[in-house]
Amino acid sequence: MEESSLQSGSLKSKTYHCGTLTYTKVGLFALFTWMLWGDFCLTLMESVVPSILPLKLKSLGASNWLIGMIMSTLPGVLTVFLCPWISFKSDRYRSKWGRRIPFILWTLPFLCICLVMLGLCDDITAWLRSVLPDLRGYSPAAVTIVLIAAFMIMFQFFNMFVGSVFCCLLNDVVPPSVMGRFLGTFRIVGMSAGTLYNVFIFKYAESHMKAIFIGAALVYLAGVGMMCIRVKEGEYPPIEGETDKDNKGWGGIRTFLKESFVHKFYWMKFLSTTFVATANVVNTFLVFLYQNMELSLDQIGKQIAVAALSIMAATYFMSIFIDRWHPLRIWVYGAVFGTITSVMNLMWLFIILPGNYFFWLNIGNIVISSFLMALVGVAAYPAEMRLFPQSRFGQFSSAQALIRSLFTTFMGILAGLFIDMCKKFCGCDYAYRFLFVWQLVFMLLSAVFLVLVYRMWNEMGGVRNFHPPAPWSPQGVEELPIVPVIGPQSKYLKISFLIYDAIMLISILSIPFLMFQMHLRGQLFAFRWFGLIVLPLTILVGLYWWISRNKMNSDIAEAQAGRIPRNGILHHGMLIMIGCKFLLLVGLGICQVLCALYLEMEEEAVVFGIANTVINLMLIIACRVMCRIERGFSIKIDETYVETA
Predict the structure, then answer these.
(1) Phi/psi at 610 (5° precision)
(2) All residues at 6 or more sequence positions from 400 whose CB lies less than 8 Å from its CB, including other chains
């Protein structure tokens, strides 16, 4: 009765709670303002280094493997040694400033100095050569590369403190009842910073490097400094199940290793994230890939900005579904169906379009994909909050970062060597297109391990009763609140199937239209191959969908009758989102073929046609795979909410 009265009073006074912290609406607004402002400045600062330094290093004559080592391997080495220690200590640190903010505030001036030094590397080289005669035996470029590597190590050293605790700070100060809305806004603000940078600043990366780095340092100093002063942390209880010797020296290392790596569930989760990071180590070279696609720096910046704006707008609408459908489910579906996008990119190994055409076609792909990218992107962090123990969230996040960094430390160099090897065969910057092959391999591996996480999560209780494994607890698990979610709904599954019907039907009907255009233009090569290969394959894929659709409908009918279906039931929400994306991509595929025909590129038109058919086939296969993944767990339908067991 007393607890009920307290809850009623809390609702009447409109207060929000996070640990020992209590906010009114005004206080919550102030918290959001300062946290989001800090994130804006942090994102703006962190956009500068990875986007400009590769251009600078390449202009100095650095090889791809050296660029990979400086941009990926050196930060990876620091992450291996620093992130686990920082996160482990921050979980257990207690001060009047809290347990996270001191790590951000103490490193702030040093990080700003490192940024300024990176911007002044050319001037520092000239000064050193003037005062140290021995350096005159080395070229200015060689000295500058060494300085950049040194300043990069220093920058990453201090930035590790911020990166290790910033997201943990969100978990400590933001009330759980508004976490979903905050994370959606958080992502929008971060993308806004990236958009402004790419639209207005990135095009000056080569001509005004010094001014950009100094400006980034000043913005970070003002923004993050004010956030640290204005945001207050609450009081934290002592760490349960540990003595003082368990978190110091070798005892702390043993505790970290014993708690973080003892359960295979966490290993699967760590590896899934690690392979995503490994796929993305080649992002260092994306600017060179786009330059090979004949895009200018201005177009590259605008392309990135459009992606950020599209995802930002989509995030506003998508955040509401994170808790309703469960973030892990969203993440897994996104990973499985996301491999189709990685396969789609392989067609650029065989197609070379003029830069302006590629620019607009890629803009179309970015906008079409934005809603699904926004949904999956926002789901990642909430999913980890529901998988990792809350009392040691920083520790498990750093354990994941440790495994991730061990891989990326070596893969950064390997990625550069991979590009250099491809260059030996291609003899030109066309080799950068093989980045798509690298990304596909590691995105597939990530999807496999994330599926294993999903299966184990279901085996340990799933949406009804999952609690993270906790070897330090006598119960073996740490209790987490179970949030009700919406399960598969037959009405919306029927709608999703209609969307997939439209994909297959439009794909088939568009081919006679395209062949008619080829006939009018006298493009007999494309006409012949579309008739012999593309049209028959597209019809066969349509028939395969019809068979698969009937099997899925049969499983739905079994579930409605109270019987166990042969396979699992797909979730309607993600199926609709994915279907809408690929329905729009059918239209983009038609535009790709028409562009190739307009440019008298008949072979490329055939490649586009075959690629679109392969995409439809993979879409069906992904649906069948997800049915098998859900088998044994997703067996009920039309439950409005899945409650705790």
Answers:
(1) -65, -40
(2) 266, 269, 270, 273, 274
* Residue numbers in the chain where pLDDT is lower than 50: 1-12, 643-645
Q: Shortest CA distance to 591 belongs to which of 369, 436, 362? A: 362
Whether residue 462 contacts residue 373, with contact meaning beta carbons closer than 8 Å, is answered with no
Q: How far apart are CA 278 and CA 503, in angstroms?
A: 33
Taking CB atoms within 8 Å and a gap of at least 24, the contacts of 56-64 are 56/121, 56/148, 56/206, 56/209, 57/145, 57/148, 58/288, 59/206, 60/141, 60/144, 60/145, 61/141, 62/145, 63/416, 63/420, 64/285, 64/416, 64/417, 64/419, 64/420, 64/423
Residue indicated by tokens 């396969």: 343
Pairing assessment for the beta strands 16-18 and 21-23 based on DSSP bridges: antiparallel
Distance of CA 359 to the CA centre of its chain: 22
Type and span of the H or E element at 513? helix 490-521
pLDDT at 449: 95
3-class state of residue 639 by DSSP: coil
CA pair distance 49, 29, nearest whole angstrom: 31
Distance CA 599, CA 608 (A): 14
- The pLDDT tens digits of the residues spanning 58-71 come to 889 888 888 878 88
Q: How many residues does the structure list for the chain? A: 645
Q: Which of 287, 310, 360 is nearest to 191 (CA)?
A: 310
Q: What residues have CB less than 8 Å from 482, skipping those under 6 apart?
A: 463, 464, 465, 466, 643, 644
Give the model confidence (pLDDT) of 221-246 as tens digits. Answer: 999 999 999 999 988 877 765 555 55
DSSP β-bridge partners for residue 22 = 17
Tokens of 637: 């339908």
Q: Dihedral of the CA atoms 374, 378, 379, 384 (nearest 10)?
A: 150
Domains and CATH numbers, the chain: 1-233 (1.20.1250.20), 262-481 (1.20.1250.20), 490-630 (no CATH)
Running DSSP on this structure, what letter comes out for residue 345?
G
Predicted pLDDT of residue 6: 35
**Long-range Cβ contacts of 406-410 (<8 Å, 24+ apart):** 406/76, 406/80, 407/76, 407/274, 407/275, 407/277, 407/278, 408/72, 408/73, 408/76, 408/79, 408/274, 408/277, 408/278, 408/281, 409/72, 409/73, 409/76, 409/77, 409/79, 409/80, 410/73, 410/76
Neighbours of 513 (CB within 10 A): 11
H/E run at residue 377: helix 355-385
Q: What is the pLDDT of residue 641?
A: 59
Amino acid, single-letter form, for residue 451: V
| Degrees to nearest 5, angle at CA 585 with 584 and 590 | 105
- CA-wise closest residue to 314 among 205, 431, 157, 191: 191
Q: What is the pLDDT of residue 393?
A: 78
Closest CA to 398 of 234, 160, 170, 173: 160
| Short-list 269, 268, 261, 271, CA closest to 407 | 271
